[in-house]
TrEMBL record, chains A, B:
It holds the Pfam family Penicillinase_R. Belongs to the BlaI transcriptional regulatory family. InterPro entries: BlaI_family, Cu_transp_CopY/TcrY, WH-like_DNA-bd_sf, WH_DNA-bd_sf. GO terms for molecular function: DNA binding. It comes from Pediococcus stilesii. It comes from the Bacteria. Residues 100-127 form a coiled coil. This is Transcriptional regulator. Signal peptide: none annotated.
Length: 151, 151
DNA sequence: TCCTTTCGTTTACAAATGTAATTTATACTT
DNA sequence: AAGTATAAATTACATTTGTAAACGAAAGGA
């Protein structure tokens, strides 16, 4: 089993990780200042999350003179992929398509992002089934889903 | 004005909602049986979630003779959209594209889902920027990313 | 009517989370 | 060296979540 996906990161911890990932490692002072400005967190609050993330193995910390520097131990893209997969595993497979459509409609994407996505989709189309069954019930819900099919 | 997005649904509660959504309303007996089979939950456990969901306003319950029937008070698609937005709001905007690519690679999509998505993407391409800035830091990270000085 | 089955409700309880003050160890200043 | 500023660690505490047993009310069978 991969150890990376074992690490659960809460919402607040995500916000903490984001600044460290973005700065590619940072001192507590920097992190505290940024989160105070961005989200209004008290220094103590940020320190708590920092401590928890170190304990969880998501961050490493090294003392550099008086400063403590935090480095990510997990990659942002990997963590993001785990988080999204984790969420989508709890959603009705049958409705993932429409959900993605809405999602894509709501996020910002660059030209190259879009190009990449379309590529991926064209690839996927080659072997995609005519229909995806929902997996909300133990046996599948073919009949039930069909009924809701008209929208 | 929409009350729907106020409701927070935990992972376990999601699993509970899924069966009710899929069955388009169900009796506690059914729900308990299904979740016992699918996830090995004890009857008490399912009852707890049912109770919490009713209190949260995600479900309504009506006594029908000896049976209690639970009906969803929020739409599955709406809830799914809220959940995904909620997650993506905590992710680096700059990396949303690659994350979506991986996600799409990992989920099952039907031919029509794919068609729909490609449509949406083509639409989006018309006004998409060349590049998406990350919003992990208060000011955006274009400059900050390289900024390791200052103390 | 009395008992037993069956629900929903109440209570339980540990772990995780959000949020932060207090304490302790330590490096810097005088 | 003593005092001060500072950073991490410890402690705090209410909520939420996962998981479930126990309790009380109601309905159906005897």
């Amino acid at each position: 089993m991969n150890t990376t996906d074992e690490i659960e990161i809460s919402q607040s911890e995500w916000e903490t990780m984001r600044v460290i990932w973005t700065l590619n490692g940072a001192s507590s002072k920097q992190i505290i200042a940024i989160l105070a400005e961005k989200l209004g967190w008290k220094a103590s609050t940020t320190k708590t999350y920092l401590g928890r993330l170190v304990k969880k193995g998501a961050l490493s910390t090294t003392k550099n003179g008086r400063e403590y520097v935090y480095q990510p131990l997990i990659e942002e893209q990997v963590a993001m992929n785990n988080a999204t997969s984790g969420l989508f595993d709890h959603l009705c497979q049958h409705k993932v398509g429409p959900t993605l459509t809405t999602l894509i409609n709501n996020v910002e994407l660059s030209q190259s992002d879009i190009e990449e996505l379309i590529n991926e989709l064209n690839q996927k189309a080659k072997t995609a089934p005519e229909m995806v069954k929902c997996n909300c019930l133990p046996d599948g819900c073919d009949e039930n889903c069909e009924m809701e099919e008209m929208k």
